[in-house]
Design a protein that fits this description.
The protein contains eleven helices and eleven strands. By secondary structure, it is α/β, with parallel strands linked by helices. It has one domain: Rossmann fold. The protein has a seven-stranded parallel β-sheet, with helices on both faces. Strands 7-11 form a two-stranded parallel ribbon. Helix 1 packs across helix 6 (170-181), helix 2 (52-59) packs parallel to helix 3 and helix 8 packs antiparallel against helix 9. The longest helix has 17 residues, at 234-250. The chain starts with a strand and ends in a 6-residue tail after the last helix. The structure holds NADP nicotinamide-adenine-dinucleotide phosphate (NAP).
């Protein structure tokens, strides 16, 4: 297992790095502030994805890399980041984690279209790339606002009750990325992730019900947006909430299709029970 560059070392990058480490590899992460204390097999580089020299320095000597775009939805900035990655990457394989499913139209919110353009640019470039498109992460249910409602017996998520989601998880993302990084033969392909559970809102609430029953209530996207703003900034909160406003009306099936990636990548699906025990869910 080689040294793997993980660009963007937030929740997703950390899950990817942990999976690669668990499989015996070493990692280099890149973020503007040191993401993790340097420790055995884990090197934290400091640099900005928008700066060509920083991205070049991060790629030095790297054969495997993973890109997760940060919370940045300005098309010009995203395109600068992608250009920097394409210029710097001399790799056997780059995995691009779109961090979301991607609708088949450019008439969609920026959180989708910027990621779709990035995927197209990478796949058309000289860099051997595999694109992974996770669904919604179950890990979002660990957010304080969701937990607060769960404690009152209510699962609130900003999607109508009848929207079916094949949920992903950060574990699935890490394991699928590690598997994809070992498959240079898959360069040029794109895969939907989402194998943890396929459920509508009430189905998910039932799956989370332990000793007491939990009922599902769609959250209002505007309230959801206000709850996100203190954490990720008002502009980013609008961009994220816009995806939840758009999907039910325009692509209600975006998250519902079962994914073939688990078979293609040889990663056994994680069930919801596995996820609950691995995150130490306890009783909400
Ligand atoms: N499908 C889902 O359920 C789901 C859930 C959550 C998020 N997302 C999506 O995932 C994407 C990323 O979200 P995230 O939650 O992983 O973000 P995050 O936790 O904020 O992580 C972003 C990482 O990138 C680094 N970073 C930010 N700007 C950078 C820059 N210019 N140069 C270098 N490093 C930079 C950050 O560290 P520094 O700030 O120190 O640089 C951080 O380590 C977004 O597109 C978001 O919409 C999807």
């Amino acid at each position: 297992m080689s040294h793997c560059l993980v660009l963007g070392a937030g929740a997703q990058g950390t899950a990817i790095a942990a999976s690669w480490r668990g499989a015996g590899g070493t990692v280099r992460t890149l973020s503007r502030r040191p993401a993790t204390a340097d420790r055995d097999g884990w090197e934290a580089h400091v640099g900005d994805l928008t700066e060509p020299a920083a991205v070049r320095a991060a790629f030095a000597g790297i054969r495997h890399a993973v890109l997760t775009l940060p919370l940045e939805f300005d098309p010009a900035v995203v395109s600068r980041i992608i250009d920097n990655v394409i210029d710097a990457a001399e790799v056997e394989l780059l995995v691009y984690n779109t961090a979301n499913r991607l609708p088949d139209t450019m008439d969609a919110p920026a959180a989708f279209t910027t990621r779709r353009r990035a995927a197209e640019a990478l796949l058309a470039s000289r860099v051997p790339t595999v694109v992974l498109r996770p669904s919604i992460y179950l890990d979002n249910l660990l957010a304080p606002r969701v937990r607060r409602f769960l404690e009152q017996g209510v699962l609130r998520y900003p999607l109508p009750a009848d929207i079916v989601v094949t949920w992903s998880s950060l574990f699935e993302l890490g394991e699928a990325t590690t598997a994809a990084l070992r498959r240079p033969d898959l360069a040029g392909t794109a895969w939907d992730l989402g194998s943890t559970a396929t459920l509508d809102g009430p189905g998910l609430a039932a799956a989370l019900s332990a000793t007491t029953s939990i009922r599902y209530e769609p959250d209002d996207p505007t309230q959801f947006e206000s709850s996100l703003a203190p954490w990720i900034g008002a502009r980013n909160a609008v961009a994220v909430a816009d995806t939840y406003r758009w999907v039910p009306e325009h692509r209600p099936g975006l998250y519902s299709n079962a994914s073939a990636s688990a078979v293609a990548l040889g990663v056994p699906p994680t069930g919801i029970g596995d996820w609950l025990s691995r995150v130490n869910w306890g009783r909400p």
